[in-house]
Each structure stands twice: as C-alpha cells, then as structure tokens.
Amino acid sequence: MGSTSPAILLGLFLISVHLLAHLAAQPAPGAFKCSNTKATCQGLVDYKVPNATALSVIKTRFGVENLNALLGANNYPTSTPPSRVVAANQTIKIPFPCACVNGSGVSDGVPVYAVKDGDGLDHIARDVFAALVTFQQIAAASGVPDPNLITVGQKLKIPLPCSCEPVNGTQVVHYGHVVQSGSTVEEIAQRFGTTNVTLLELNGMTNASDLLAGQVLDVPLRGS
Whole-prediction pTM value? Predict the structure, then answer.
C-alpha cells in the first residue's frame, strides 16, 4: 500500500482541528455556587425533551414528587392529565429538591437513573438528560471509578445544578435556564427581572460575550 500524500494528511489534520474546536465550544454544565453547606431549598431547571414524552414519564425520570409540582412549574392547569405529551425539543421546567454540598448546589436525592441495556454514561448525560450534566459529573456523584464500566440495572445519581444562596440579601429560586441560540445576557436579565451584573457574577462570567447557546445559566427568580 502506498504512503498517504501530504495533502491528504494536511486535510485530515485540519478536519481534526475543526472538530476539536467545535467540541471545545460546547458549554459544559457548571456548578452553581452555594456556600451554606446546611441549606436546602427548591431547584428549577430547563429540560429540552429529546423525544415526544408524556408528563408521567418526565415526572418519573426526574423523580418529581407529584404531578401538581410539575404542572405548577410550567403553568399548566391542574386538570392536565399525566398522559399529556410534551413535543420533542419543547422545553419544560423541572422542579426538584436542592442541597448545598462543598460550596455548590446539587439535586438532593433525585433524579436516580437505572442503567438500561446499551446505555453509556455519555448517552445518559447527553441524550436522556439533555446535557444538563456531563458523564464525568454522573460518574463522580455515583461513585463510578471507570465511566466505561456500568452495568444494566445500576442506579446512577444525576447531579442537577442548583443553589440555595441568597442574592443581594434576598432569597430566590435559582433557575437553571438553558440558553437559546441568539440570546444575550441583557435580554435574559430583562426577561427574568434581574441585571446583567448579577447574571455575570452568579455564573462566573467576566464578559456578556462569554454566553453560549446550550449553557445552563443560573438565573435568580424572585417571588411575586
């Protein structure tokens, strides 16, 4: 077999660089700051449904305590049946218990996912839980020493980001808002009644241009 030409090698190199740059641009979910290690509260996070899914399935997947909690978080009528289907790629808000551990918030006890045949940690993180967590975070939370070695039926903790930290002296709900393409810090701040400075500080960002589509942004929601 003849040797590979320099032009082909250069082409492969450029493709590899492009792929690496693309992967590097994908935002990894970050922890929300939470300094009070004894604090517990209610968390809230966006979930972009990967496939058309009934509310009852979403409730079970995330371990939501009761259907009314899920309905209330999304302003659905209390008469909404659990069989109602949420369309693929629609975003729904998930309420869950939050606890502060080692300086950051994490979902407290739920969700717990049972590994199915053919599952891998990356698939579970990206596809089942819509990249709200990374496979490394699942492995760490679940005490999995080798992410490549999981077994059918194994229970995995899914550490959703959250916080119980007051903001400017006021108790808030820290909402994990998944940033949409084209959104800006200013637009998000105006929509949710906060400020650019608060969003940047909460999320450890130095510049509004650091915002990335798909990022799970810590947005403080104040009670009405």
Answer: 0.85
